[in-house]
């Protein structure tokens, strides 16, 4: 055994030294050479080495890059950042002129499909100037891992990504084990917007968060407004038809549903008939914690689980 | 033509207006009852009738067999919305008639004076503060305040040497309106990505109206409409021109102030409740005028009824067709424009 091992090592060393003599090329270490990923617009992005100068134009991307330890590599952020590390970074606005982005000479600019759809000229100008544009957005929860992996490949942080994802899934499993102990499954309604009382599609990120928190989505029959979107039409009448089944009423507060309060929900016409309103089980959750594709989704799941099943926490 | 035959003609005309009004009133009541049966939730007409009967007579047992949630849908959601639609539609149409006669401008409507822009500005500010200052400010009250303030500013601007002329009113309205539009745009841009709340309000929708809205709106709108009707005869004379009206002993400036106040109050209430619902105040008066002629005594009541009926139909259609509710403001604007073109063509044919 030992002899075999030694001989193999010897051969390898010999081969390597021969290679070294034959060509002056540096050995290929992981993290260099050709990096390539396919983004969510099916464009293949190829980099010679991991990106060192990154501009992120979406707060969730920024947060995830910081989570992978890329704080110093981020040279620009979007106008709406919540992560403290991103607060002092130069701000880039996709509604403004692309000149500022060009002047910064980033290795990659990470956007989401919404930006490309709403401001195509901004993106086109950057692409013509040979700036690498990466468009990513995990529509569904199950895409989260591959999305983080893509970010990691682009920046050479596969190891950190694997560690963070493992911790993330461990936390989710832990919460699922806890909520499984609850004596009764609770039925929850989740409001995405106050206008027209819209809810979420079961397959969307908040829909999955709701499932992971051990809740049953009352409005699982809701139809999506757009085929790929996360928002689903519901309306006051369908909602009130389920008045007796809703144990907990959750509403997200954020850009999609600004300024929502518990009192505002209680005062809506006819809502006093809803079980959750009668039993004071109406809660506001931060939209970022349940909708944004970041590692904080685990916190969102935990928060929801604690609101829905306080008896097992 | 002798005076007796003229009187007979006038009597016949009044009788015709009464009959038309009665038909419209009956139609409105029937439509309202039918609209109670429309909606996402499947509730039978019998149950709906039982709930309304029981609630009105105060007899709990009439609807005790019906599920509490269904009762809430009928009584707390559909009925207030139906009544709000009738009040807003009727109010906007009456305000349209009054403004068209007052400003002697067939293109004037309830929004010409900038009252609606004022209401929109008030609402935008309230929504903005609710989002960023965590206050529970009532948007409806702010919208109403904005409308009334705007009216006062426009009136004081238009008053030159103690006299308000219709040309000055239109100009002052346009000036104030454009300044406020700019202010609304500023509030929108300040709101950043949370702008959706403001935009949704501005579109104009009758969703989620409660009894509170109905209880405040109906008396105010009705009172202002009756005030307009009371002065309808004077308004007819006023449309001959200021000098003629004055020589017939009418205090033109006072009459104009009163009617402007009434029309603007109606508009303020309507906008505060439903946001900006376009074209109702423009189309309905033109439609009715084609049938009745331009006698304001006939126009005001008939337009009120027609407007209510029209908006009720549009809103019921918007809320019960398809998966997504269509805000009534979108519907009236989409259908209103082409319809206005059609009316314009017809009118020119009959005149030519």
TrEMBL record, chain A:
PROSITE patterns: FE_B12_PBP (PS50983), PROKAR_LIPOPROTEIN (PS51257). One of its GO terms (biological process) is cellular response to iron ion. Signal peptide: none annotated. InterPro entries: ABC_Transporter_SBP (IPR050902), ABC_transptr_periplasmic_BD (IPR002491). Gene3D superfamilies: Nitrogenase molybdenum iron protein domain. Residues 53-312 form the Fe/B12 periplasmic-binding domain. It comes from the Bacteria. Pfam families: Peripla_BP_2. Belongs to the bacterial solute-binding protein 8 family. PANTHER family: MOLYBDATE-BINDING PROTEIN MOLA, VITAMIN B12-BINDING PROTEIN. This is Vitamin B12-binding protein.
From TrEMBL, chain B:
It comes from the Bacteria. Keywords: Cell membrane, Membrane, Transmembrane, Transmembrane helix, Transport. Gene3D superfamilies: ABC transporter involved in vitamin B12 uptake, BtuC (1.10.3470.10). One of its GO terms (cellular component) is plasma membrane. It holds the Pfam family FecCD. It is found in: Cell membrane. It is a multi-pass membrane protein. The chain crosses the membrane at residues 82-104, 137-155, 167-184, 215-232, 258-284, 326-344. Its main location: membrane. One of its GO terms (biological process) is siderophore-iron import into cell. GO terms for molecular function: transmembrane transporter activity. InterPro entries: ABC_BtuC-like, ABC_transptr_permease_BtuC. Belongs to the binding-protein-dependent transport system permease family. FecCD subfamily. This is Putative ABC transporter permease protein. It comes from Sporomusa termitida.
